């Protein structure tokens, strides 16, 4: 097992380096520090002195990759690439263009994101699997056909519809929960319940349809026919055999998104005023704070690779044959 994990970690290193290089090229070659300064200061009537002052205050006045004026290792270390990109591998995010500590902001904003993402994942998983098993139990009937039509319709509806509709019905019309905002401690539940409900409802179409497909694929296999031949009821066949053997793809879908829960939802947090990492990224893009955007891109890449690694490890736990590949 340990050799398998080490091999997967070694595979992840060049991927992460490649993502970091591409991010650096996009931010500092395609969009140069001079362009960043002009966007921050205003495109019109910006003097060269103001641009240089802005770059100097934020460490963008150094060479990109190689500093010929320095000596020794400082030729590489005294560069924008080392200061803004290499340090990310040590999770040293530095300061934003507005002077805030990015690492501190991330540590504070990850908790509101998790407060929404975890209930949506866990409750949504339970709801989607339950609905999928119910539909499969009545497969090839009008209930099955009507459910598939409804699920496809729910998949086709934009997430903004659920957000705006939920805010109008539950907040503006019935005044059951606040329309937006956030609070700390126990009082935060009244601000979180509406985003969680909308997140669960918005994922029913895609999730239930996917699990229905998995269960229908399993239900046609030989071991299911053998279970029926032994006299087991359809309910026991579904829960004792079909659900158990469909755990591998279900586990894949769950494990791969676990690290990404920290990143939050860009749209949901922005519409509900939740101070999570999703709204943090949106605000950084709106304010053209490229230091925050770079950090969030790198962090998202690390978490996604970690999710893939956890998926590979979970495969080996439920199916030892994977270790041989």
The parts where pLDDT drops under 50 for at least 5 residues are none
CATH fold annotation of the largest domain: MetI-like fold
Strand content: under 5%
The termini sit apart by 12 Å
The backbone outline, from C-alpha atoms, is globular
Structural class: mainly alpha
Q: From N to C, what is the helix and strand string?
A: HHHHHHHHHHHHHHH
Which architecture of the largest domain per CATH? Orthogonal Bundle
- Biggest sheet: strands, sense, closure? none
Query: Which value, in Å, is the CA radius of gyration?
Result: 25 Å
**CATH H level of the largest domain: which superfamily?**
MetI-like
Instruction: Assign the CATH class of the largest domain.
Output: Mainly Alpha
Overall average pLDDT: 86
Q: How many beta-strand elements?
A: 0
Helix content: over 70%
Number of domains: 2
